[in-house]
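# nightly structure sweep
# worker-07 picked up a monomer target from the shared queue
# config: single-sequence mode, recycle default, output format = structure tokens
# input follows
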Amino acid sequence: MNTKKIIIPVILALVVVIIAPYALHPAEAHILKNFAPHVSVKIGWDSEPPLVGDTNKIYVYLYNGTDDTAPPIAGNGLDNMTITIQYGGQTKKLSFDASDDTPGLYSSAVIPTQLGTYNTIIQGTINGVSIPATTYPMQEVEAKDKYNFP
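# output follows
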């Protein structure tokens, strides 16, 4: 039996198994970004997938640390922030309310009226940390037809 015929496919299979988790990235519904020295902001849609014409919310989570296990920044964390939603060349300033139930969670109602990708742009100050203009690409807004039944 020729061992070269067996070893080469086994090595190739191992390489694929080892590399695949690093090469394949699932779509991130909520994106977390860190701002030095100790603020993290995570943004995403409330209802996913977002559907054109449906009322949805943009969720903003604030953390006093570098990940989403850090203590939340509750209450007035967005008081010195400007947050806009962008589609194509159009932008709209959003107004956020702090959650009564989840510390560090803020939400703003939005009705996406077009299919495609929206961006959320943040800028300002959180807990004395300067936040430069930062863009969060949101999960793509889809057509209801894809999910309608019957």
